[in-house]
Amino acid sequence: QAKNLGKNSICFFELEMQRSIDHRLHLESKMREAIKRNGFELRFQPKIDHGGKLIGAESLCRWQLPDGEWVSPADFIPIAEETGLITELGNWVFEMAMATLSEIQKHYLSGFTMAINVSPLQINQSNIVRQLLHTCTHYQIKPSDITLEITENVLMQDAKSTEEKLRRLKSHGFQISIDDFGTGYSSLAYLKHLSINELKIDRSFISDIGQDPDDDAIVETILAMSRHLNLKVVAEGVENHDQLLFLQQHSCEQFQGFYFSKPLSETELLQFVINHHKREISL
Ligand code: C2E
Ligand code: MG
Ligand code: MG
Ligand code: MG
């Protein structure tokens, strides 16, 4: 009896596994197609400083299937990484994000900055530094106006070569930010000897601020530590005024989240810039 049941459940899992493999293969071939025929888009989420000034945006990749369905980056970025397609997709993201940045800097707001998510495989791409510098030159953008967001897990892989890449990127002026800070498997030691400018507090710590004393303590501690280490801090996922108030009271310098704006299309971002480049956003 029990044996039979066990056997059945194994079959069930195999079926599920086969389904998910099929699904991934399907997505992979769709993704190859989409890279060729412009099936990807970027959205931009504004970043606001403690005085309500618009300082820049983070670019976030979107994928729309031919049938209109949207696939989340949480689903397609891992597949792009496994298949190596991330290199091509990542280069496309650099290109598009900088094209938008250059448009904004030239016509609206010269100090505007752009944050770009970079995956581990891209950092280890041998020509990443040259590639980024080339795109900057092409769009007449200063590397210091670009923030590269990497996750802590990047630092776990091939630590020596990653360390060297980050050092070179930083020496050219690129800003290096640790995304989703506090959620990865990593040690604090890297904050000491790696070339990092900024920490981005993960939104899982922000969401229950004021309600969960543990989250209050974690966020306060990250902010205090960053101050001592001279690191900038961005709070991601700020959704309401209470969270903002807490963050302001603890000297957080930059905010991002639905409270200010959802991720915007390029046209919407330009409108947002026009609305806010002179007038500060009331906090
Ligand atoms: P992330 O870099 O941590 O981006 C923040 C995510 O939080 C975005 O999800 C954004 O839409 C969402 N978000 C922003 N504000 C709020 C808020 O107030 N509340 C809530 N609930 N969510 C908020 P998204 O766009 O689905 O991106 C998910 C992840 O996919 C990103 O996390 C990033 O790690 C990755 N990703 C996106 N674009 C790229 C890309 O071009 N390259 C790479 N390598 N990864 C990317
Ligand atoms: Mg990010
Ligand atoms: Mg993040
Ligand atoms: Mg996050």
UniProtKB/TrEMBL annotation:
Keyword terms: Coiled coil, Membrane, Transmembrane, Transmembrane helix
Domain EAL span(s) in chain numbering: 24-277
Gene Ontology molecular function: any one: catalytic activity
Keyword Cell cycle: no
Protein name stated in the entry: Diguanylate cyclase (GGDEF)-like protein/PAS domain S-box-containing protein
